[in-house]
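Below is the data:
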Amino acid sequence: MTQNIYDDPEFFGNYSQLGRSKQGLDGAAEWPALRAMLPRMHGLNVADLGCGYGWFCRWAREAGAATVLGLDVSEKMLARARSSSNDPGLTYARADLEHLDLPAAGFDLVYSSLAFHYIENLRGLLDTVHRALVPGGRLVFSIEHPIFMAPRQPGWSVDAEGRKQWPLDSYQIEGPRITNWLADGVIKQHRTIGTLLNHLIGAGFTIAHVDEWGPTDADLAARPELAEERERPMMLLVSATR
């Protein structure tokens, strides 16, 4: 079963203080780039894997989606999502993405934000998503960039000329990485970019767009604290079609 760290009281309490938890999609700096990858939402049947507070689910309905299914392993996340809307076109359910069952050809769009790096059997999940999409359907997701997931501690170092360095720790060795983010013992699954993209291809997807996301000049003007994100990619955004 997927590690359910989001139901850990310490983790959930710290997570609730993040900007993206308080401000929703507007608090996620990568959202404009991710939104640009999405199809026109009108009339679509949509699934959100790792829906969290349900921010994207509500946005999709407001943008014209016919139905939206939000899935998450965390009861605390689902309770927050359900309390934020009584829209009959929205359904929230608990699901372990490691063992996901979705109806064949049931969705036009499957979306996921920063959840796939927790999944050990990612290829199995992608196979499930491929079956669940109609022909021509779209998978759009964000994931922690593999370079971001494999740094040596404590992080930045500085070379002899004063330039920041982001040394990698066994980038080619894939598997679980234990991090202390918001709480101790958070398990994420590191895999190389090549493995990630080949899983998509092997599952039958056609890759449409890949974005090693970084802030624009406008982003930095509004949020100077994002400057670090230009030193190394933190997120990978991917759009693929069935």
